[in-house]
Specification:
Shape: rod-shaped
Strand content: 15-25%
Low-confidence stretches: none
CATH topology of the largest domain: Beta-Lactamase
CATH class of the largest domain: Alpha Beta
Distance between the termini: 36 Å
Strand order of the largest sheet: 2-1-7-6-4
Mean pLDDT: 82
Helix content: 55-70%
Largest sheet: 5 strands, antiparallel
Length: 220
């Protein structure tokens, strides 16, 4: 590989690794990645197969796009019989935990090129992992806010039955004892119901906090 092409590839790695974290939509990340990799002089085309769909640049069709190998594969162009918009010599298939990447390469790729491409795919997979963690953390935070608002609502609901008990005890000499006890029992049942709801809310909040902790640990 010439120094100029190696520098181009290294610069592309730097560009992708610097900007890919800024996107907040999965489709935007994948389209950005395809666009940047397709700009490489040695790249005749790229396809990313993702859970949200297929993204690509410069490739119409290829029989190997339907395959999802467990390990990295390099296939000579004469064997793939694909319809690429630009001529290429090899097809690199690189599976990652998030996507399967297909890169159509012009010329014979050297070991350095392949290693750098692997690193780029690792960056992509990590960026998608990070986005998922961000979304899940945002969901957890919104759930905590919702739980806190509901907790305040339940706390406020306790005021009425507590006030009823206080009034019944203060007026015990003015109302019948049985009536006072009935008011206290009814208020007590309402308090018990509210406390049970608060207990369930506490359990839900603890689960959300644990989920948030796992997300933060994953991101770190």
């Amino acid at each position: 590989m010439s120094d100029s092409r190696l520098n181009e590839l290294l610069f592309k790695v730097f560009e992708i690794s610097s900007l890919i974290w800024l996107f907040r939509e999965r489709e935007d990340i994948l389209n950005f990645f395809c666009e940047k990799v397709s700009e490489l002089e040695d790249c005749a085309g790229i396809v990313l197969r993702d859970i949200t769909g297929v993204y690509g640049r410069g490739v119409v069709d290829c029989i190997y796009l339907s395959t999802e190998p467990k390990t990295i594969k390099i296939i000579a162009a004469k064997n793939c019989n694909c319809k690429a918009k630009r001529e290429h010599d090899y097809l690199l298939i690189c599976p990652t935990p998030q996507v399967t990447a297909y890169v159509f390469i012009k010329g014979v790729p050297c070991e350095i090129t392949l290693q750098i491409l692997k690193e780029i795919f690792f960056i992509l997979s990590r960026a998608l992992d990070n986005l998922e963690a961000f979304i899940n953390l945002e969901i957890a935070i919104n759930q905590l806010k919702s739980n806190l608002e509901y907790f305040y609502y339940l706390s406020d609901r306790l005021r009425n039955p507590l006030t009823g008990i206080l009034v019944a005890t203060e007026l015990k000499d003015e109302i019948e004892t049985e009536k006072a006890f009935r008011v206290i029992r009814e208020c007590g049942l309402r308090i018990e119901k509210i406390l049970n709801e608060m207990k369930q809310l506490e359990i839900s909040t603890r689960k959300t906090l644990d989920s948030g902790k796992r997300i933060l640990l994953f991101k770190n």
